[in-house]
Structure formats: C-alpha cells, structure tokens
Amino acid sequence: MNNDKVLNKSLSIRISTNGLSFCTYSPGEKKAFEYKKIDVQPTISMAANLKNALMTEPELKGNYQRVNVMVVTPRTTCIPVEDFDPEYAESFYEFNFPDAEKTHVSYNVLNKCGIAVVFGIAKNVYQLLVDDFPQARFYASLSTIVEHIGNVEKTSRKNKMYAYVLERELTLYAFSNGTMLCFNTFPVTSIDDCVYYTLNMMQQMKFSQVDDSLQIIGNTGKEKNLLSKISSFVKDVTVVDCREEFGNSITGGDTSIPYDLQTLLICGF
C-alpha cells in the first residue's frame, strides 16, 4: 500500500448503547468520505457486535494513520482543569459510578473550555479496539459537542441552553458568556419528557424563558416536534440545521450522520 495514502487516512468509530457506526476519510480518493451504520443484533452484547464488524467490514481492516473512537454514554463526569490530575481519573469516575469494575476509564482535557471529561467504556469493547487499532484515541461524545459549542459560543454574551435529542436520551448543556456551566443527561420516552426536563433545568439555572435562548440539536427527526411543543414556553428557541452547521465540513452536513460524530470531525481532534 502507498504509505502516503496511509498517512492521510483516518477512521472514526461511534459506539453507543445500541448503535455502531463508522466513517472513513481518504483525501485524494475519488470518494474521499464514507459513512456506514451497522445493524447491531440486540440479542448479543456490544462487544460481540463489534467483534463481528471488525471481522466482516472491509473498511475496518484497512490501515489508518488516525483512528478516533467516540463513546456515547451518560456515564460521564466533568472536572475543572485546575482540579484535574490524570492519576486520579479512575477515582473521580468511581466516586460517581461505583460499579465500574468492568469499565475502562478514559478522559479528555478540553483546555479551551476549562474542563476535563472523564468517561467509561466497557473493558471488553475497549480491548477489542486497541487490539486492532493500537493508535486509537478515545473521546466522549460530550467532549466533542462541548468543544464545538464552545467554539460557536466563544463570543456570546448571553445565556443559552442546548438540548441534544437522542433516541432514548436528552442531554442539556447550559452556557453563559461562552462558558459551559453544567450539563445533564436524562432518559426520555416522549417529547413531553424532553419539554419537562428542559424547562426544569432552565428554571434551576435561573435562565429566562423570555430573554435567554434554547438551541435544539441532533438529527433523530424529533427536533421539530420538541420545537413545536416547547415554543409555547420559551420565546427564543430554534432547531440547528445540520446542513448549515456542517455544510462546509467533510460530511457536507449529511443528516444521516449523528450530530456528535460530525462535531468530532469538525473539531479536528
């Protein structure tokens, strides 16, 4: 294989509780960017699904200079950079999630945002990945989203709430003057759940439903439903259009690609 081509190739893998997908980027190739969602079998573990994919997907057998792994998990905690010591990352994690014996603990330091993100990934999944990709770097989806929003909000002088809609979860991020104040993830089964948690967090953060803004992000197809229901309570609310947000990136703002994966690619981790 041409070494120059390998040097420019990258692979990004996204792993969630019930989902697995990946994308490749090979500058100079006729089809430089490709994205694929893998149909997982719900009756077997994610480790077993990943093992099958590693054995059967041709793109996962290639040579890459850079391999990024995104982990979508609510088992995440944030620590101010000035209080974070990598030697105690596991202790920070285990304090919040005591049942961590089968978990590999990783962390991302976001210096521009002033926080360290500590998160977990199942040890058997982690081992499968590092066996095939020793150069792999691991990121929490929270890290890439916060980094991206931080770049967007760096000149902002107002309070803004971001609501990230997933299939069974809602993650809320509160920003003020370009700085993240807090985040929280909630299990949801309906749009009404999303409305309740969003309004509750705005109230807890003392955000105004008239003067402050709410941005709805994601591409599950539920975002406009949330907009329709919550606009009765929040005056300044909009749905972020992926095609506009990422239109100039390598994804072209393709709405079939998860929002968090697009933030990973645009932030250049």
Describe this structure in words.
By secondary structure, the chain is an alpha/beta fold. It has a domain at 147-245: 2-Layer Sandwich (Nucleotidyltransferase, domain 5), CATH 3.30.420.260. It is built from nine helices and 13 strands. The chain has helices spanning 3-8, 46-56, 89-96, 123-132, 141-153, 191-204, 223-230, 242-245, 259-267, and strands at 10-16, 19-25, 33-38, 66-71, 76-80, 103-110, 115-122, 137-140, 159-165, 169-176, 179-187, 213-217, 236-239. α2 (46-56) runs parallel beside α4 and α5 packs across α9 (259-267). The model has no long low-confidence stretch (mean pLDDT 92).
What is the rounded Rg?
19 Å
The largest sheet, given as strand count, sense and whether it forms a barrel, is: 5 strands, mixed
Strand order of the largest sheet: 3-2-1-4-8
Unreliable parts: none
Jot down its keywords.
31% helix; 13 strands; 269 residues; alpha/beta; 9 helices; Nucleotidyltransferase, domain 5
Topology (SSEs and partners):
Layout lengths: L2 H6 L1 E7 L2 E7 L7 E6 L7 H11 L9 E6 L4 E5 L8 H8 L6 E8 L4 E8 H10 L4 E4 H13 L5 E7 L3 E8 L2 E9 L3 H14 L8 E5 L5 H8 L5 E4 L2 H4 L13 H9 L2
Parallel strand pairs: 1-4, 4-8, 9-12, 12-13
Antiparallel strand pairs: 1-2, 2-3, 5-7, 6-7, 9-10, 10-11
Helix pairs in contact: 2-4, 5-9, 6-7
Short description:
31% of the residues lie in helices and 31% in strands.
